[in-house]
Amino acid sequence: xGPRPIPRYVYIPQWGLRDVPDEVSADPRSRAEVLLxxxxxxxxxxxxxxxxxxxxxxxxxxxxxxxxSMPVPAWTDWTSSVLVMFVGLLALGAYxxxxxxxxxxxxxxxxETYRSRDRRDPRPRWQIAVLAAVPLLNVAGAALLxxxxxxxxxxxxxxxxxxxxxxxxxxxTIVNVLALVAIATRVVAMFSGSIQTAANGLAxxxxxxxxxxxxxxxxxxxxxxxxxxxxxxxxPSRRWVTVG
Length: 244
Known about the structure:
Elements: H1 31-67, H2 74-116, H3 125-133, H4 137-152, H5 158-192, H6 195-227
Helix pairs in contact: 1-2, 1-6, 2-3, 2-4, 3-4, 4-5, 5-6
């Protein structure tokens, strides 16, 4: 039996080996870890915005102090007023973003933690959202929600975590008190018509903005340290070998 003829095709066969490109591997991080990274980035952006707001309010404060002894050009007063409103809206947007991400992170963190224990989160999502997102209430509410998570995490040292949480909530309380004082002072200044009262209101806002900026940056580092992925122990670049 002789050799068979080589088959010929009028089209390119689709059977046989195919060169399938490797699929791009998915992000190995969990949803809570992705949201934590977004929260850390958002807190640092908020710190920058609040620092900018403090500088703008400081410039406005200087203009008011100068205006007590000599008149300032109308355009400088108008420009400073516009900048104050602009950075105020910018800070408000940053606050809203951080609170939204913070709330979503806590919800997913709790869900993953309870799931690892083959349990469901006993708190409904709406309750977690209220405790984590409502200003002033979240000072105590977020503490409660995260303490419940920490008690279920075997990878967290209880004493060290409790100390870190205590520092966070004390600092958060101080920042909220300063913010309330600044808001109250600004409201009084709006209706007083006094240049000195307006200057006092701006001074309170400056102090509150600076403290809030420092706290936001510090909080980003604290949350990353407590709930971030564990880092491997550093390996020394130089090894000493005993020679017999």
